[in-house]
Amino acid sequence: MNPLHPPSPTRTGERSARAPDSRAAILAAAEAVLLDQGVEGVSIRKVSDRCGFTAPTIYHHFGDKKGLIDAVLETRFAVVLKVMAAIERGNDPAAYLTEMARAFVSFALENPSYYRLLTVPRLEDEDVVPSAEAARGLVKNALEDLALEGTLGTPDIDEAFQVLWLMLHGLISLHLIRPIDEISPNLIERTFAVMKAGLLRREPSAQPEATR
Questions:
Q1: Is residue 89 located within the same domain as residue 47?
Q2: What is the C-alpha to C-alpha distance for residues 89 and 98, in angstroms, rounded to an integer?
Q3: CATH code at 177?
Q4: What would the mean pLDDT of 112-129 be, rounded to a whole number?
Q5: Whole-angstrom distance between the N-terminal and C-terminal Cα of the chain?
Q6: Rounded distance between C-alpha atoms, residue 22 and residue 93, angstroms
Q7: Angle subtended at Cα 48 by Cα 56 and Cα 10, rounded to the nearest 5 degrees
């Protein structure tokens, strides 16, 4: 070591940017901060302090704060998308839609931290998360199939999607904030029954149509 040129000081706990787990560790730290403080509470400094990697390393992997948050959300949405995409489409769009809803609810209840990430408020000018859009597309395709066969209760696909989301989010939120023994074990099935009764027609309409 040249005593005239000592190495630059490093802060305690700093880790190598070349560590094979650097990206995963940064994502985990960003996820923790995001869950604790929301989108606006995330900063490169806070993530750096939590994971031990320097700000330049974080910028190297993700570009900026927005890129880091997008990467966290994309990682988690990709897990949900995989669950939903594995469901057989079959020839019954109502059954297909119900199974996707059931899979989403099960995933949310088994992974509450992930669900909190999926529902974290986003800034208005932020780009969409690709996996989230793909999952939304699966649901809307099922709703469109119902509209085409004349069994969807409304011609407005976006409205039907919002009704479905409100019911599922309400059901999941109730389970996450209240002890399970305070909730009827049949609540999930009853919710699905109400969902289908509200969204589906008993008889196909004569001239089905769908709008977006």
A1: no
A2: 11
A3: 1.10.357
A4: 77
A5: 68
A6: 43
A7: 65
